[in-house]
Amino acid sequence: MKCKSCGGALDLTSTSCPACGAEADLGRITGILGLVCRACDAYNEPRARTCVACGKPLGATETALPAAQAPAGPPAPPPHGAAPPPAAPEAGAAVVRAFPRSGAPATRFVPAAALRQPQPEPPAHTPIPLSPTCPRCGAATGPGTFCAKCGQALGARGTQIVSQPFQGGRTATQVYGAIVPGRVKLVLERGAGTEGAAFKLADETTGAGRTTGAVTFPDDPCLAPLHATFLYRNGGLHVRDEGAPGGLYLRLRGLSVPLRPGDHFVVGDRLLRYGGPLAGAPSAPPDGTRRLGSPRPPAPAIVLEEWLEGAVAGRVWVRGGPSVTIGRTGCGVNLGDDPHLSQAHAEVVVDANGGARLRDLGSSNGTFVRIPPHAERELRDGDYLRMGREVLRVSAA
Fold this sequence. Notes:
This protein has 397 residues and is mainly beta. It has helices at residues 25-33, 112-115, and strands at 35-36, 43-44, 95-96, 110-111, 184-190, 198-200, 205-209, 215-216, 228-233, 236-241, 248-251, 257-259, 264-267, 270-277, 301-308, 312-320, 323-327, 333-334, 346-350, 356-360, 367-371, 376-379, 384-387, 390-396.
Protein backbone atom coordinates (compact mmCIF):
# COMPACT_ATOMS: atom_id res chain seq x y z
CA MET A 1 0.00 0.00 0.00
CA LYS A 2 1.31 3.47 -0.93
CA CYS A 3 0.71 6.89 0.53
CA LYS A 4 -1.66 9.04 -1.52
CA SER A 5 0.43 12.17 -0.87
CA CYS A 6 4.04 11.13 -1.47
CA GLY A 7 3.79 7.60 -2.81
CA GLY A 8 5.81 6.11 0.02
CA ALA A 9 5.23 2.55 1.25
CA LEU A 10 2.79 2.24 4.13
CA ASP A 11 2.32 -0.41 6.78
CA LEU A 12 -1.24 -1.73 7.06
CA THR A 13 -1.11 -0.99 10.75
CA SER A 14 0.09 2.59 10.32
CA THR A 15 -2.26 5.50 11.02
CA SER A 16 -0.01 8.01 9.19
CA CYS A 17 2.71 8.03 6.49
CA PRO A 18 6.22 7.82 8.05
CA ALA A 19 7.62 9.97 5.19
CA CYS A 20 5.19 12.92 4.89
CA GLY A 21 2.92 12.45 7.91
CA ALA A 22 -0.27 12.21 5.84
CA GLU A 23 -3.15 10.30 7.48
CA ALA A 24 -3.56 6.65 6.38
CA ASP A 25 -7.26 5.82 6.28
CA LEU A 26 -6.81 2.05 5.95
CA GLY A 27 -4.52 1.92 8.94
CA ARG A 28 -7.14 3.63 11.05
CA ILE A 29 -9.76 1.08 9.98
CA THR A 30 -7.53 -1.91 10.63
CA GLY A 31 -6.77 -0.47 14.04
CA ILE A 32 -10.47 -0.79 14.81
CA LEU A 33 -11.53 -3.95 12.97
CA GLY A 34 -8.33 -5.98 13.02
CA LEU A 35 -6.19 -7.58 10.34
CA VAL A 36 -6.38 -10.62 8.06
CA CYS A 37 -3.12 -12.46 7.44
CA ARG A 38 -2.10 -12.56 3.76
CA ALA A 39 -0.46 -15.96 4.22
CA CYS A 40 -3.26 -17.96 5.89
CA ASP A 41 -6.32 -15.64 5.90
CA ALA A 42 -6.56 -15.90 9.70
CA TYR A 43 -8.16 -13.02 11.56
CA ASN A 44 -6.00 -11.08 14.04
CA GLU A 45 -6.89 -8.59 16.72
CA PRO A 46 -6.20 -4.85 16.13
CA ARG A 47 -2.60 -3.75 16.67
CA ALA A 48 -1.30 -7.33 16.25
CA ARG A 49 2.19 -7.51 14.68
CA THR A 50 2.35 -11.25 13.95
CA CYS A 51 -0.37 -13.72 12.86
CA VAL A 52 -1.80 -15.79 15.69
CA ALA A 53 -2.37 -18.72 13.29
CA CYS A 54 0.81 -19.01 11.27
CA GLY A 55 3.19 -16.69 13.17
CA LYS A 56 4.17 -14.62 10.14
CA PRO A 57 4.53 -10.81 10.40
CA LEU A 58 1.56 -8.67 9.42
CA GLY A 59 1.49 -5.57 7.21
CA ALA A 60 4.14 -4.28 4.82
CA THR A 61 6.93 -6.13 6.63
CA GLU A 62 5.40 -9.44 5.58
CA THR A 63 8.00 -11.51 3.71
CA ALA A 64 6.18 -14.78 3.33
CA LEU A 65 7.31 -16.89 0.38
CA PRO A 66 4.95 -19.15 -1.56
CA ALA A 67 5.24 -22.84 -0.81
CA ALA A 68 6.78 -23.47 -4.23
CA GLN A 69 9.57 -20.90 -3.51
CA ALA A 70 10.32 -21.99 0.04
CA PRO A 71 14.02 -22.51 0.68
CA ALA A 72 15.18 -26.07 0.35
CA GLY A 73 16.85 -28.03 3.09
CA PRO A 74 15.69 -29.68 6.31
CA PRO A 75 13.89 -27.48 8.85
CA ALA A 76 15.80 -26.27 11.83
CA PRO A 77 15.25 -28.38 14.95
CA PRO A 78 12.92 -26.84 17.53
CA PRO A 79 14.34 -25.39 20.74
CA HIS A 80 14.89 -27.77 23.61
CA GLY A 81 11.54 -28.63 25.27
CA ALA A 82 9.42 -27.08 22.51
CA ALA A 83 6.86 -29.10 20.55
CA PRO A 84 7.85 -29.80 16.93
CA PRO A 85 5.95 -27.72 14.34
CA PRO A 86 3.13 -29.48 12.49
CA ALA A 87 3.80 -30.87 9.04
CA ALA A 88 2.75 -28.68 6.14
CA PRO A 89 -0.28 -29.89 4.17
CA GLU A 90 0.29 -31.76 0.94
CA ALA A 91 -0.18 -29.91 -2.31
CA GLY A 92 -3.84 -29.90 -3.36
CA ALA A 93 -5.08 -31.30 -0.02
CA ALA A 94 -8.09 -29.67 1.62
CA VAL A 95 -7.17 -27.67 4.71
CA VAL A 96 -9.34 -26.69 7.67
CA ARG A 97 -8.35 -23.40 9.30
CA ALA A 98 -9.41 -22.32 12.75
CA PHE A 99 -9.75 -18.75 13.94
CA PRO A 100 -9.03 -18.68 17.68
CA ARG A 101 -10.33 -16.08 20.08
CA SER A 102 -8.04 -13.41 21.43
CA GLY A 103 -5.57 -14.92 23.88
CA ALA A 104 -6.33 -18.52 22.79
CA PRO A 105 -3.45 -20.71 21.60
CA ALA A 106 -2.89 -20.71 17.86
CA THR A 107 -4.46 -23.48 15.82
CA ARG A 108 -2.32 -24.82 12.97
CA PHE A 109 -3.30 -26.36 9.66
CA VAL A 110 -5.29 -29.59 9.98
CA PRO A 111 -5.63 -31.75 6.84
CA ALA A 112 -9.33 -32.37 6.21
CA ALA A 113 -8.54 -35.99 5.28
CA ALA A 114 -7.38 -36.57 8.86
CA LEU A 115 -10.83 -35.61 10.13
CA ARG A 116 -12.42 -38.26 7.92
CA GLN A 117 -10.30 -41.15 9.16
CA PRO A 118 -12.63 -44.04 10.10
CA GLN A 119 -12.90 -44.71 13.82
CA PRO A 120 -11.92 -48.19 15.01
CA GLU A 121 -14.93 -50.45 15.36
CA PRO A 122 -15.67 -52.05 18.72
CA PRO A 123 -14.73 -55.70 18.97
CA ALA A 124 -17.46 -57.98 17.72
CA HIS A 125 -19.18 -60.20 20.26
CA THR A 126 -19.11 -63.89 19.78
CA PRO A 127 -22.55 -64.85 18.41
CA ILE A 128 -24.64 -67.19 20.50
CA PRO A 129 -25.84 -70.19 18.53
CA LEU A 130 -29.62 -70.41 18.37
CA SER A 131 -31.59 -73.57 18.75
CA PRO A 132 -34.68 -74.55 16.73
CA THR A 133 -36.27 -76.17 19.78
CA CYS A 134 -38.17 -74.75 22.74
CA PRO A 135 -35.97 -74.39 25.86
CA ARG A 136 -38.80 -75.51 28.14
CA CYS A 137 -40.54 -78.46 26.47
CA GLY A 138 -38.13 -79.31 23.62
CA ALA A 139 -40.78 -79.01 20.91
CA ALA A 140 -39.73 -77.85 17.44
CA THR A 141 -40.37 -74.12 17.01
CA GLY A 142 -41.66 -72.28 13.98
CA PRO A 143 -42.43 -68.64 13.20
CA GLY A 144 -43.60 -66.58 16.17
CA THR A 145 -42.35 -65.35 19.52
CA PHE A 146 -43.85 -68.09 21.71
CA CYS A 147 -43.74 -71.87 21.67
CA ALA A 148 -46.99 -73.22 20.23
CA LYS A 149 -46.96 -76.13 22.70
CA CYS A 150 -46.16 -74.58 26.09
CA GLY A 151 -46.11 -70.81 25.49
CA GLN A 152 -42.41 -70.34 26.29
CA ALA A 153 -41.05 -66.96 25.07
CA LEU A 154 -38.80 -67.36 22.02
CA GLY A 155 -36.40 -65.13 20.13
CA ALA A 156 -36.43 -64.15 16.46
CA ARG A 157 -37.35 -66.76 13.85
CA GLY A 158 -38.73 -69.15 16.45
CA THR A 159 -35.43 -69.69 18.25
CA GLN A 160 -34.49 -69.45 21.87
CA ILE A 161 -33.78 -66.06 23.36
CA VAL A 162 -30.47 -67.34 24.76
CA SER A 163 -29.32 -70.89 24.19
CA GLN A 164 -26.03 -70.88 26.11
CA PRO A 165 -26.35 -71.13 29.91
CA PHE A 166 -24.90 -68.48 32.16
CA GLN A 167 -22.68 -69.30 35.13
CA GLY A 168 -24.75 -71.35 37.51
CA GLY A 169 -26.64 -73.22 34.79
CA ARG A 170 -29.47 -70.69 34.36
CA THR A 171 -30.51 -69.03 31.12
CA ALA A 172 -32.36 -65.83 30.29
CA THR A 173 -35.54 -67.86 29.80
CA GLN A 174 -35.13 -69.56 33.19
CA VAL A 175 -34.59 -66.54 35.42
CA TYR A 176 -35.64 -68.19 38.64
CA GLY A 177 -34.38 -71.71 38.05
CA ALA A 178 -36.52 -74.51 39.48
CA ILE A 179 -39.74 -73.27 41.06
CA VAL A 180 -40.01 -74.76 44.54
CA PRO A 181 -42.53 -74.23 47.35
CA GLY A 182 -42.24 -70.81 48.92
CA ARG A 183 -40.79 -69.07 45.85
CA VAL A 184 -44.09 -68.19 44.18
CA LYS A 185 -46.97 -65.99 45.26
CA LEU A 186 -50.31 -64.98 43.79
CA VAL A 187 -51.04 -61.24 43.61
CA LEU A 188 -54.64 -60.08 43.38
CA GLU A 189 -54.89 -57.58 40.51
CA ARG A 190 -58.64 -56.95 40.85
CA GLY A 191 -61.76 -58.63 42.14
CA ALA A 192 -63.89 -58.92 45.26
CA GLY A 193 -60.84 -59.05 47.55
CA THR A 194 -58.31 -56.37 48.45
CA GLU A 195 -56.34 -55.40 45.34
CA GLY A 196 -52.61 -55.98 45.77
CA ALA A 197 -53.06 -58.72 48.38
CA ALA A 198 -50.45 -61.47 48.03
CA PHE A 199 -50.87 -65.18 48.78
CA LYS A 200 -47.67 -67.16 49.21
CA LEU A 201 -47.78 -70.71 47.84
CA ALA A 202 -45.61 -72.27 50.53
CA ASP A 203 -46.94 -75.86 50.45
CA GLU A 204 -46.65 -78.58 47.84
CA THR A 205 -50.40 -78.27 47.27
CA THR A 206 -52.53 -75.15 47.91
CA GLY A 207 -56.29 -74.92 47.45
CA ALA A 208 -58.11 -71.79 46.28
CA GLY A 209 -61.80 -70.96 46.35
CA ARG A 210 -64.53 -69.29 48.37
CA THR A 211 -64.00 -71.13 51.66
CA THR A 212 -61.49 -73.98 51.19
CA GLY A 213 -57.71 -73.66 51.01
CA ALA A 214 -55.11 -70.99 51.82
CA VAL A 215 -56.29 -68.69 48.99
CA THR A 216 -59.91 -67.78 49.75
CA PHE A 217 -62.30 -65.03 48.68
CA PRO A 218 -65.44 -65.42 50.82
CA ASP A 219 -67.21 -62.42 49.24
CA ASP A 220 -67.14 -63.77 45.67
CA PRO A 221 -70.37 -65.69 44.98
CA CYS A 222 -69.05 -66.90 41.60
CA LEU A 223 -66.42 -69.12 43.28
CA ALA A 224 -66.98 -72.69 44.36
CA PRO A 225 -65.83 -73.66 47.88
CA LEU A 226 -62.77 -75.32 46.25
CA HIS A 227 -62.35 -73.75 42.84
CA ALA A 228 -58.73 -74.61 41.87
CA THR A 229 -55.62 -76.27 43.25
CA PHE A 230 -52.01 -75.09 42.84
CA LEU A 231 -49.32 -77.74 43.02
CA TYR A 232 -45.56 -78.02 42.48
CA ARG A 233 -44.27 -80.79 40.23
CA ASN A 234 -40.93 -81.40 38.46
CA GLY A 235 -39.55 -77.94 39.22
CA GLY A 236 -42.66 -76.11 37.98
CA LEU A 237 -45.95 -74.72 39.24
CA HIS A 238 -49.22 -76.17 37.94
CA VAL A 239 -52.88 -75.28 38.43
CA ARG A 240 -55.76 -77.75 38.27
CA ASP A 241 -59.39 -76.91 37.59
CA GLU A 242 -61.60 -78.57 40.19
CA GLY A 243 -64.72 -78.67 38.00
CA ALA A 244 -66.42 -75.56 39.39
CA PRO A 245 -69.41 -74.37 37.29
CA GLY A 246 -67.83 -70.95 36.75
CA GLY A 247 -64.63 -72.43 35.36
CA LEU A 248 -60.97 -71.39 35.54
CA TYR A 249 -59.49 -69.10 32.87
CA LEU A 250 -55.87 -68.52 31.79
CA ARG A 251 -54.75 -65.39 29.97
CA LEU A 252 -53.39 -65.86 26.44
CA ARG A 253 -49.60 -65.60 26.22
CA GLY A 254 -49.51 -63.67 22.97
CA LEU A 255 -50.58 -66.69 20.89
CA SER A 256 -53.66 -67.60 18.99
CA VAL A 257 -55.41 -70.70 20.27
CA PRO A 258 -57.86 -72.96 18.44
CA LEU A 259 -61.54 -72.65 19.29
CA ARG A 260 -63.93 -75.57 19.35
CA PRO A 261 -67.72 -75.21 19.47
CA GLY A 262 -68.73 -74.68 23.08
CA ASP A 263 -65.43 -73.07 24.23
CA HIS A 264 -65.73 -70.12 26.61
CA PHE A 265 -63.47 -67.07 26.83
CA VAL A 266 -63.46 -63.73 28.66
CA VAL A 267 -62.75 -60.25 27.29
CA GLY A 268 -62.96 -57.46 29.86
CA ASP A 269 -65.88 -58.47 32.09
CA ARG A 270 -67.78 -60.21 29.29
CA LEU A 271 -68.07 -64.00 29.05
CA LEU A 272 -68.50 -65.27 25.49
CA ARG A 273 -69.11 -68.72 24.04
CA TYR A 274 -68.00 -69.84 20.60
CA GLY A 275 -71.01 -71.47 18.96
CA GLY A 276 -69.11 -72.84 15.98
CA PRO A 277 -69.63 -72.36 12.23
CA LEU A 278 -73.04 -71.23 11.06
CA ALA A 279 -75.15 -74.20 10.07
CA GLY A 280 -76.04 -74.56 6.43
CA ALA A 281 -79.46 -73.63 5.14
CA PRO A 282 -82.02 -76.44 5.39
CA SER A 283 -83.17 -78.00 2.21
CA ALA A 284 -86.16 -76.36 0.56
CA PRO A 285 -89.57 -78.08 0.75
CA PRO A 286 -90.77 -80.02 -2.30
CA ASP A 287 -92.45 -77.00 -3.80
CA GLY A 288 -89.15 -75.02 -3.63
CA THR A 289 -90.44 -72.24 -1.35
CA ARG A 290 -87.86 -70.83 1.07
CA ARG A 291 -88.66 -69.57 4.54
CA LEU A 292 -88.44 -65.80 4.92
CA GLY A 293 -85.42 -64.51 6.93
CA SER A 294 -82.62 -62.01 7.09
CA PRO A 295 -79.84 -62.33 4.52
CA ARG A 296 -77.25 -64.92 5.42
CA PRO A 297 -73.70 -63.56 5.94
CA PRO A 298 -71.07 -64.64 3.43
CA ALA A 299 -69.28 -67.89 4.22
CA PRO A 300 -67.35 -68.73 6.30
CA ALA A 301 -69.60 -67.45 9.10
CA ILE A 302 -69.52 -68.18 12.85
CA VAL A 303 -71.82 -67.83 15.85
CA LEU A 304 -70.78 -66.02 19.05
CA GLU A 305 -72.94 -66.01 22.18
CA GLU A 306 -72.86 -63.87 25.31
CA TRP A 307 -73.42 -65.61 28.65
CA LEU A 308 -74.85 -63.60 31.51
CA GLU A 309 -74.21 -64.20 35.21
CA GLY A 310 -76.10 -67.25 36.37
CA ALA A 311 -75.49 -69.15 33.08
CA VAL A 312 -78.24 -67.31 31.21
CA ALA A 313 -77.87 -66.90 27.45
CA GLY A 314 -77.69 -63.29 26.25
CA ARG A 315 -77.03 -61.73 22.86
CA VAL A 316 -76.08 -63.81 19.82
CA TRP A 317 -74.01 -62.60 16.86
CA VAL A 318 -73.65 -64.25 13.46
CA ARG A 319 -70.69 -62.81 11.64
CA GLY A 320 -68.86 -63.64 8.43
CA GLY A 321 -65.10 -64.30 8.32
CA PRO A 322 -62.29 -64.45 7.76
CA SER A 323 -61.83 -62.06 10.72
CA VAL A 324 -64.37 -61.18 13.41
CA THR A 325 -63.09 -58.49 15.78
CA ILE A 326 -64.44 -58.11 19.31
CA GLY A 327 -64.27 -54.92 21.36
CA ARG A 328 -65.99 -51.91 22.78
CA THR A 329 -66.91 -50.18 19.53
CA GLY A 330 -66.12 -50.19 15.82
CA CYS A 331 -65.71 -53.99 15.71
CA GLY A 332 -67.60 -56.92 14.23
CA VAL A 333 -68.94 -57.66 17.73
CA ASN A 334 -69.43 -54.52 19.86
CA LEU A 335 -69.93 -55.18 23.56
CA GLY A 336 -70.49 -51.59 24.68
CA ASP A 337 -69.14 -49.72 27.68
CA ASP A 338 -66.79 -51.83 29.79
CA PRO A 339 -63.87 -50.22 31.69
CA HIS A 340 -61.76 -53.35 31.25
CA LEU A 341 -62.46 -53.75 27.54
CA SER A 342 -60.26 -52.25 24.82
CA GLN A 343 -61.78 -50.65 21.74
CA ALA A 344 -60.47 -53.54 19.60
CA HIS A 345 -59.80 -56.27 22.16
CA ALA A 346 -59.65 -59.68 20.47
CA GLU A 347 -60.23 -61.42 17.16
CA VAL A 348 -61.62 -64.72 15.93
CA VAL A 349 -59.86 -65.80 12.73
CA VAL A 350 -61.89 -68.17 10.56
CA ASP A 351 -60.34 -70.29 7.82
CA ALA A 352 -62.01 -71.54 4.68
CA ASN A 353 -62.63 -74.97 6.20
CA GLY A 354 -64.62 -73.57 9.11
CA GLY A 355 -61.87 -73.78 11.74
CA ALA A 356 -61.43 -70.86 14.13
CA ARG A 357 -58.64 -69.43 16.25
CA LEU A 358 -58.79 -66.80 18.99
CA ARG A 359 -56.08 -64.19 19.47
CA ASP A 360 -55.65 -61.07 21.58
CA LEU A 361 -55.15 -57.75 19.77
CA GLY A 362 -52.73 -56.28 22.31
CA SER A 363 -55.43 -55.33 24.81
CA SER A 364 -54.48 -53.81 28.16
CA ASN A 365 -56.28 -56.43 30.27
CA GLY A 366 -55.82 -59.48 28.08
CA THR A 367 -58.03 -62.29 26.81
CA PHE A 368 -58.71 -65.31 29.02
CA VAL A 369 -59.56 -68.81 27.77
CA ARG A 370 -61.22 -71.44 29.91
CA ILE A 371 -59.21 -74.47 31.03
CA PRO A 372 -61.20 -77.70 30.48
CA PRO A 373 -62.80 -79.04 33.68
CA HIS A 374 -60.36 -81.06 35.84
CA ALA A 375 -57.48 -80.29 33.44
CA GLU A 376 -54.09 -78.93 34.49
CA ARG A 377 -51.88 -76.18 33.09
CA GLU A 378 -48.29 -75.28 33.91
CA LEU A 379 -47.81 -71.68 35.05
CA ARG A 380 -44.86 -69.33 34.74
CA ASP A 381 -43.89 -65.99 36.17
CA GLY A 382 -46.22 -63.25 34.92
CA ASP A 383 -49.17 -65.46 34.00
CA TYR A 384 -52.68 -64.23 34.82
CA LEU A 385 -55.55 -66.40 36.03
CA ARG A 386 -59.23 -65.59 36.41
CA MET A 387 -61.54 -67.53 38.70
CA GLY A 388 -64.90 -66.02 39.55
CA ARG A 389 -64.43 -62.27 39.74
CA GLU A 390 -60.80 -62.51 40.84
CA VAL A 391 -57.83 -61.83 38.54
CA LEU A 392 -54.59 -63.22 39.97
CA ARG A 393 -51.01 -62.73 38.75
CA VAL A 394 -48.30 -65.36 39.25
CA SER A 395 -45.14 -63.81 40.71
CA ALA A 396 -41.92 -65.82 41.17
CA ALA A 397 -39.73 -64.06 43.77
